[in-house]
Amino acid sequence: MAVCVGIIGKDNSPKYFTCLNPDEELGFQYKVLSSLDVVEEKLSSGNKTGSDMRELYLGMLYSLETHKVYGYVTNTKIKFIIVVDSTNTALRDNEIRSMFRKLHSIYADNVCNPFYIPDEPITSKSFDRSVKHIMTGA
Amino acid sequence: MRSSVSYILSSTTSEPNMSHPDYEQYSHDHAALLILVKHLGSQLKNKVFNKFYERISRVNSVKITDSTGQVRNILIRYIKDHPVENNDWGDFQTHRRLLGLISLGKYDSQQELNEICRVHESLKVKYTNTLYDSRCILFGANDEREYPSDNSSPEEQSIVSSSEVLSSKDSSENSDITNEAQDKSSVKEETTSSSYNPLTEGESSNKDNEEIKSDKVEEKPKSPVKTVREKFTTPSNFKTRALFYNEAEPCSDLENQLTEFINSLFWVLESKRLERSREKLERVSLLLAPFEKKDFVGLDMDSRNNKKRCTGRMTKHLGDLCLQAGLLSESLSYYHSAAETLKSVNDWLWLGAAYEGLCAASALVLYPNIQRNVSLHRNSSLQEGSPKRSNSITTPIEVTKKDIMNMLPPEEISKKYREAIIHYSKYQNAGIIETEACFKAARISIEQNHSLQAASFLQNVVFINLTLSEQEKIQRFETLSDLYTQTGFTRKAAFCQRLAATRYVSPQNPTPNWNQCYNLILQSFPGHKIMLDPTEMCSNNVQMGWPLLQIQLLQELVVAAKRMGHSALATRHMTYLLQTMWKHLSPTDQKELAIQLQSLSSQCEGAPVPLVLDSGIVIPPANLSNIPVCASFVLRNLQPHLQPRKIETLKRDLGPFLFTPINFGSLERRTNKPQSKMDFLWVENDVCEVTLKLVNPLPFELKVSNMRLLTSGVVFESIPETVVLPSDTPTSVTLNGTPKESGELEILGYSTHTLGVKSNCRLRYMLNFLPLYSIEVIPALPTMEIKTSLPQSATFSSFQNFENVVTSASISLYNGESTECTITLTNTSQVPIEMLEVSIQSVLDPSLQDQIFKWSQENLESQLPLMPNGTASLTLYLYSAANFLATGFGTAELSSGVFGSSHASSIMSMSAGPSSLPSRLNSPVHSAMGSSFHGARRNELNSSFRSSNSGQSSMTTTGYRSPGALTLPQHAASSIVEGQLQLRYSGGAGLQAGYCRTCSVFLTLEMLPSLQVTNWDVLPAETSSQFYLVLDIANLTSQEMELHYTPSKHMLIEGHESCRIPVPVNRCPLSKLTKLYMDQNSGLDDRLDLDKICSEHIANLVDLRWQLLSLNVKGKATLKGITLTPNMLDIVRMSPLNWEVNINGDYLKPQEEINCDAGDCLNVCVNISNSLEKPLRQLMLTIQFYQDHQNGTHNYRLETRVVIVGGAKKLLPTLEPQGKTWHSCNVLFLTPGQYKMDIQCSTPDSSTTVPAITGTAGHTWRYIPAVDINVNI
């Protein structure tokens, strides 16, 4: 389903990055990095409305010829980015949302690990496995 | 945004579509008059041209009052280049037409002038379809200073007057100038400021049209005479108005000329607009976009639909013209109705254009202040820190905008733009129109602060498929990046910049430009959160940005710099990459990049200096502090013997408490932190050390050369060091240096030269280090080298201040032996030694220490000052001082008094064994007995001890058991004395500063036992002035020893043998004791004093000299510290009473025996005289007889054997000093036998009549020895 997942800290530096095809990682990094601009913009404009219960899901950040980039921001300003293949038209918004929710929950699990220092890059293997699971939709 | 029907309506023919996009367009440019500013000829410098271009560009809006008195705001857009093809779209959007031409040129000769004029004319031909008017600005030769630049006006006039042919256009303008506004703004000559007379515009506009078209035709045949200055004239066929200036002068009327020019353009435009507006809408011809020409071939042009299409397009066209002519409200209504009409006929392209026009007009009303930033040049522009979001919506416009009908509200503008773009996207050939629309829409969105909207417009640009040249693609990316930056999308902007950079050098690009590529990559750094200064990158512990991308970008930058031919930059960036991204690189990358750096630096060595680019950007130095990694950085104290010390240490007041359980240190947390200020000192001109621990993280051997210390403060000479570091092994490196001044020295870090890069590794920028270390450097102190004449010690035992030891000396001495040791001091520094203090330190008692170590301070001081390289010598006298007396008894035992002592010893002696005789120790018989064996040597040690009758002797404790073998007393084994000869020296400036150095010589003295007095006793001598000191001397060596105990007598003692020697000693004279007798307030101490005085007396007089014959070693033994019992004391000191005993009138000599028969009467006469200086009172003189059974029993009960005639006792009330008295009696022995006569004189107890007459209260003096009487039958 997803081809790339990134978790970005509140200082906008990557904490976790994976993609199905490791050879394309650099390209995906560029895509995710430039999508952060949109995330930032959405966050800053979202604050102006002042709604307390902010929608964590940001929707599609932007779409490219081949890929679509979706964003999700936790209340602690941790950004989740999912890149999907734009040829995959079967993918609905709801599925993206559920992917984000799952991602959020395993991220929360990882943060609960006392051996993980928040804001450090995530290197946990089990976390990686879970993310891969979500990405493949299995 | 892209329409799904894109390309459906577009034709695939290769129509001449507009192939040169203009990314710089603003929506406001819809309303602007397009003027081309052209640089002609090669004489005019680019810089000058740009200067004038900017000046011209500032005239970008002109207020013109039209014929109805309404003030029109006319906008002007200047461009430097305009492809003719773009004019083709002029029908579609009129602002694309080039209306004016200004050319700038410089000439030095007529030929050049002609050339410029020719080019200008050809340009006019090129744009002839759309051009309304032109100007040619000419800069004359520099030598024509006499003509002020403003003088162009009269010439103009002359030109005008002389050129009749031009009257059709120019002269008609000039002849009647009525425009008031123009009059006000014109400076010098009204005649030159040309403007259309509003009254004649109707006719003239028609003429104009013809004129413009006929320009080309008329050019050649016409030959207007233009006299320029004196010599140069424009060619005859040149009929443009020329403006002559001197480039060096202010050209103050340039703006007026421009205004006039714009006026002329406006009036032409206005006339055209009026002309168009008067046309009947039903009869207008169809306006076409360039690519549409084929589409309408064969269509029914008269259909109702087509009619509407024509009308709609014309309405839209009118809207364009109105907009350009400054009639906003009119244009809005035109656009509005055009949109309605075109919508109904599904003319998407033109509908889009109508919408765009609507948006442009509305934006012009809402945001009149949007302006392009003129001063910024595209490629050299720096990223602005904050995106530009000027909000130019001001209140006056709020008011005006309500008045205008059909105007779009702000939020509608982008919506309409979106629609327009969607409509455009249906046509492949309108790609450039669409792209430009996107940019224009994005700019409006930025103005509205709708970043997301702007971003979506910009995003759309990427999708538009255009066949563009590489240059245009690059421009597109650059413009995108510029706009992204303005929206605050720095990452996206950086991304676009990087794309543009790669385009510059892509294989498709026929002319790769590495310079541009490099600049763009550099510009994209802020978006990737890369700081140019590596220290900033490393100082934040938080990793900024995306390392993987940063690494790639930096690598690209290195390649670009290398290809650019700037190898210094390449080295610098590679260094930066290694330094900042080290921890994000994989080991193989680390290795590869390090090798790359090595090869790069072989072309240009990296140095820690900032590099300045042509664009003015400063690339700060990058220092490799990671290669090698510094694990520790420690300043070393000087070696202990070189450490400076304060000459006078102030006594620190510690307060009344020497110890407090409250640990203040634990409360003050900061004391745990390492201090940057060192608590030790360095010395000027002395080599100082800093120890580094370096780790080479690379998998190959790393050579680090030229390592030095970086310091500030006092002058410091660092000695370069070169090390080769093996991979991954911590290596210690010591960096040396010499401070050349005194004062505060700061150590900031170290410099390295590795992988071909020089780096200054400052601790401030390195993790886990203090920013700097500071240390006090004191003025120069001398250094001294010390040598001794004795061999060095094999080992040092641990000892206090052991660290100062520079050399050592060891020697073995027999007790009593002495020797000399010469210590040679050499000044090895350049500073004279002016102060030298010698002291000895040991754990010994000070008095003993002084005996062992002696030297002459005076001798040493006489050798000062010690000049550089001078030597001095110090002689140290060593004497093996030891206690030669066997330590058999404690002093306490002796001092406890006569009775205590005797009692204790008697018990001891009895318990010791049967061999010791039970005796009453203080009996006088002992002394008498002692004389019997004096001088007689007993071979058997045991018996000699047994016969020894001095109960106080050491035998009581030792109790020698083993016959024949000498058991050495405990301390008789060799002992080792250790001492340090401490030398404190200083000189020069260091001395004045109060510092010195301390070094010491470690002395080891092995003291071998030589002889020992195991036992001693005193015996009265033959004369009363002397006594015999009997010593039992043990030879503790294994050699034969010759002992000289008097000047004349000597004796040989075998090794480990013992013998007894009598030493005649003068009795202690009373003069030494007078004080004791005189002192009335004496107590128990007197006994000790007496003891001491006598002991010293003996020690001084007895001179025991020994010599080991085989070793030729000589020595001297002292009896210092000999202890004496009270009985001994009586013998040792002179008696205060002088005795004279006469038997039967004969003087009794000492030791003399009396022989008589039983029944004989002996007359005993005793004379006593007082030799003290005070009277003795209550003396009791007693004469007593007894028999000694030689077994410790004295028989005093002799009533049946001895008869005394006369008083046996006599009381002497007073004996004056030097006074004499006598007593006599007769004695009759009844039975034969051996008798002894004891004569004694006693003073009463202190409790009786005269208390405390002397210190010897209750003392008894005896006549010694007791007299032996042999009574025969």
TrEMBL record, chain A:
InterPro entries, alphabetized: Longin-like_dom_sf, Sedlin, TRAPPC, TRAPPC2L
Annotated compartments: Cytoplasm, Perinuclear region; Endoplasmic reticulum; Golgi apparatus, cis-Golgi network; Golgi apparatus
GO biological process terms on file: endoplasmic reticulum to Golgi vesicle-mediated transport
Cellular component GO terms, alphabetical: endoplasmic reticulum; Golgi apparatus; perinuclear region of cytoplasm; TRAPP complex
Domain of life: Eukaryota
Key words, A-Z: Endoplasmic reticulum, ER-Golgi transport, Golgi apparatus, Transport
Gene3D superfamilies: 3.30.450.70
Pfam family, one: Sedlin_N
Family note: Belongs to the TRAPP small subunits family. Sedlin subfamily.
SUBUNIT field: Part of the multisubunit transport protein particle (TRAPP) complex.
Name this polypeptide is given: Trafficking protein particle complex subunit
Automatic annotation (TrEMBL), chain B:
Family annotation (InterPro entries): Ig_TRAPPC9_Trs120_1st (IPR058565), Ig_TRAPPC9_Trs120_3rd (IPR058567), Ig_TRAPPC9_Trs120_4th (IPR058568), TPR_TRAPPC9_Trs120 (IPR058564), Trs120_TRAPPC9 (IPR013935), Trs120_TRAPPC9_N (IPR058563)
Protein localization: Golgi apparatus
Family from the record: Belongs to the NIBP family.
Domain (Trs120/TRAPPC9 first Ig-like) ranges: 642-750
Membrane-spanning ranges: none
Occurrences of domain Trs120/TRAPPC9 N-terminal (ranges): 85-375
Any single GO CC term annotated in Swiss-Prot or TrEMBL for this entry: trans-Golgi network
Segments of skewed composition (Low complexity): 1-14, 152-169, 942-954
Domain Trs120/TRAPPC9 third Ig-like: residue ranges: 1022-1132
Disordered: annotated span: 1-20, 145-228, 942-961
Bias kind Basic and acidic residues: ranges: 181-191, 204-228
Residues covered by the Trs120/TRAPPC9 TPR region domain: 470-602
Keyword tags: Golgi apparatus
Keyword Transmembrane appears in the UniProt entry: no
Main location: Golgi
Name of this chain's protein: Protein brunelleschi
Boundaries of every Trs120/TRAPPC9 fourth Ig-like domain copy: 1138-1239
Organism name: Ignelater luminosus (Cucubano)
